[in-house]
Amino acid sequence: MTVTRSSGEQEKSSGELWSNQGFRRLFAAASLSHIGSEITFVAMPLVAVIVLDASAAQVGMLWMLKFVAFLTVGLPAGALLDRTRKRWVMVSADMGRALLLGSIPLAWALDTLTIEHLYLVALLTGVGDVFFDVASRSYLPLLVGRKDLLTANSRLSSVEATSTLAGPSVAGYIVQFLSAPIAILIDAVTFAWSALCLFGVRHREARPKRPENSRLIPEIGEGLRFVWRHPLLRPIVIAGALTNLFLTFAIVAVPLVLVRELGLGGGAVGLFFTFGGLGVLLGVSTATWVCRRLGAGQSLWILGLVGIPFGFLVPMMDVGPWQWVASAAWSVIIFRVGHNNVVLVSFRQRVTPDHLLSRMNATMRFVMNGMEAVAAALAGVLATFLGVRTVLWIAAVGLAVAWLPIVFSPLRSMTSFDSAYQGAPVPKEDDRS
Questions:
Q1: Are both 245 and 392 inside the same structural domain?
Q2: How far apart are the C-alpha atoms of 407 and 421, rounded to whole Å?
Q3: Could you list the residue range(s) of the whole structural domain that residue 322 is in?
Q4: Which of 205-209, 221-225, 261-265 bottoms out in mean pLDDT, i.e. has the lowest?
Q5: What CA–CA distance (Å, rounded) separates 170 from 175?
Q6: Is the separation of the CB atoms in 417 and 146 below 8 Å?
Q7: Are 429 and 361 in contact (CB under 8 A)?
Q8: What is the CATH number of the domain that holds 388?
Q9: Contact 290, 425 (CB under 8 A)
Q10: In principle, which of 113, 251, 279, 310 could form an S-S bond with 329, CB 3.0–4.6 Å?
């Protein structure tokens, strides 16, 4: 049966969210640990370059090891997490990453730090990232219930967007005045803080029921089939993969256009992506309000349609006013991406039964992060043979059509999350498992 929630009920649900002790602690954990992660995002390669005099190839290997975990252990992580309590996995992942990162400044102080040490830390913290990310997205519906998912995701995404915007600047000052290894030590402390916050959550998660004679490979296959056969999840994963593909094209090409073709400095690149950071922050912060005005599913295709012309302004960037026009257009594009992330994650969590949450989230991460890796390599090849400006035009065309899988799905007419197609059992609003 289709149920449409009134705006008054949505506002009441939003107001009740902060009374949830578990969500308050999860929010506190996310707030500091996201900033810490952004600091390490900048500081880790700087340790390699400044302290160890690493080559470009070694820095590239460091980045690859950081993200390869999503492609190698992402799907098994989902199946394993559906068998166990998520909160303790999150606490363990936080403590493990705190110890791993803490080993870098310790080895630096003892003058024993090597590039192989950084490789190992990057690889293992990447594994921790996978397990924490999948577990946290799967734990949230159990913690707050389905009725508060949109508001909860919006607030958590706002923290992440703010961290992405402010973290690199903070990291730059820390590295300049204290050193890169000390910046990584600060991130280690934030992970320990996150683990402490999550440890104090009073909500007690029930142990998932594990089917008899269950095996890992068939369970992974069950998660893949669930996502692909679901009338809402299939268009979500296709649209997300296409969006990540063409966004990565743009992200790879923009610095090359600004620096090599237009002769601008690194400051112009930073300014351009700062506009994107502001766009995503605004998109995730206003997602609840926009959904209340336009409808949850309807907002996806309306913003997709409105955003089409802005994508074609980015490849037209040039010195002078067109630099600002392209930056503002990028902000609008990323606003839509931020909004869609909040809404689509909420739809995903809303329609997935508890025993498949981790496998669904792992499948999504596997496809979307895998597409980013493919896109980065493909963008380099296309730029070599066709030119970087052509890559930007391809990105503009791709982003103009990436939202079409949503249009041709039941999502396009859904006014609320309660009207989500019952392609899988949806727990009742008061279900906390």
A1: yes
A2: 15
A3: 219-422
A4: 205-209
A5: 9
A6: yes
A7: no
A8: 1.20.1250.20
A9: no
A10: 310
Rounded Cα gap, residues 99 and 188, in angstroms: 7
Domain tally, the chain: 2
Q: Give me the sign of the Cα torsion angle 45, 46, 47, 50.
A: positive
Cα separation, 408 vs 42, whole angstroms: 40
Give yes or no: residues 366 and 264 share one domain.
yes
Q: Do residue 326 and residue 358 come from a single domain?
A: yes
The answer to whether 220 touches 76, Cβ cutoff 8 Å, is: yes
Q: Which two tokens stand for residue 141?
A: 């519906």
Residue 378 covered by a domain: yes
Query: Is 429 part of a structural domain of the chain?
Result: no
Distance CA 150, CA 347 (A): 8
Q: Is residue 115 assigned to a domain?
A: yes
Residue 202 phi/psi, 5° resolution? Answer: -80, -20
pLDDT grade for 166, boundaries at 50, 70 and 90: low
Query: Which of 69-83, 188-202, 300-314, 381-395 has the least mean pLDDT?
Result: 69-83
Whether 225 shows a pLDDT value over 80: the answer reads yes
Statement to judge: residues 124 and 261 lie in one domain: no
CB atoms within 10 A of CB 152: 27
Instruction: Check if the beta carbon of residue 139 is closer than 8 Å to that of residue 252.
Output: no
Q: Report the alpha-carbon distance of residue 163 to residue 159 in Å, rounded.
A: 6
* Summary mean pLDDT of the chain: 80
Residues 6+ apart with CB under 8 A from 89: 81, 131, 132, 135
* Six token digits for residue 202: 């009073």
Average pLDDT over residues 4-13: 41
Domain boundary among 167, 201, 235: 201
Long-range contacts formed by 211-219: CB under 8 A, 24+ apart:
214/83, 216/76, 216/79, 216/80, 219/79, 219/82, 219/359
300: Cβ–Cβ under 8 A, 6 or more apart, which residues?
340, 343, 344, 403, 406, 411, 412
78's tokens: 């989902």
Of 151, 168, 201, at which residue does a domain stop? 201
Same domain, 189 and 60: yes
Same domain assignment for residues 355 and 227 = yes
173 and 223 housed in the same domain: no
Beta-carbon contacts of 385 under 8 Å, excluding residues fewer than 6 positions away, are none
Hey, CA dihedral for 277, 280, 281, 282, is it positive or negative? positive
Residue 284, H or E segment? helix 266-285
Place of tokens 């949450």: 357
Is residue 431, in this structure, part of any structural domain at all? no
Burial of 385 (C-beta count, 10 Å sphere; 0-12/13-18/19+): exposed
Query: What tokens does 123 get?
Result: 């690889």
Beta strand segments in 308-394, E? none
